Amino acid sequence: MVSTFDARFHASKLAFAGLTKISCAALMTIGVFAASPAAANDAPTTRLVACGEQSCLRIEGRRDSVGTLVAINGQPMAVDGAESWRVTLPMQTVRQIAEQGARRLEVTLLHPNATRESRDYARLPIGLLGDTTALEAIRVTAS
Per residue of the chain (143 residues), what is the pLDDT tens digit? Predict the structure, then answer.
């Protein structure tokens, strides 16, 4: 009786160990694909930064190689960085290349040795290029 129990316990222990190894291998495979360059191609981001007395818009993104050219709304840009790039534009420049009230900028990556290009959009901070209204007074009443 003891030998039967021991044999069953040993078999289930081996099955559990095998299942654990398969699960670990599956998780490692998922991790490899998640860390691949294709997964690293996130959408470009924007944020306001101070540059001297004025505000500037910093646009950051990723590209395959240093030779890949970056254009914002069709305008070629000189960017800083290698695969992880950034460009800082004065708000006057942003207003020139974007429409009034725009909510995003088109970022185009021009691959140097190919005739292909990839496009993505960088979302602008809310209300950045919106209309402003000068108010003389606001009347607030409670009801």
Answer: 556 656 565 555 655 555 555 554 555 555 544 444 444 457 999 999 999 889 999 999 999 888 899 999 999 999 999 999 999 999 999 999 998 889 999 999 998 887 778 999 999 998 888 766 777 888 899 98
Rounded Cα distance, 73 and 63, in Å: 17
CB 60 within 8 A of CB 44: yes
What tokens appear for 139 in the block?
Answer: 């009347």
Residues 58 and 15 in one domain: no
Question: Are residues 78 and 119 part of one domain?
Answer: yes
Query: 130: which DSSP letter?
Result: S
Which tokens go with 2?
A: 């003891």
In the chain, the number of structural domains is 2
pTM of the shown model: 0.62
Euclidean distance between CA atoms 128 and 78, whole angstroms: 23
Strands of the chain (E only): list them.
45-51, 54-62, 69-72, 75-77, 80-81, 84-90, 104-110, 117-123
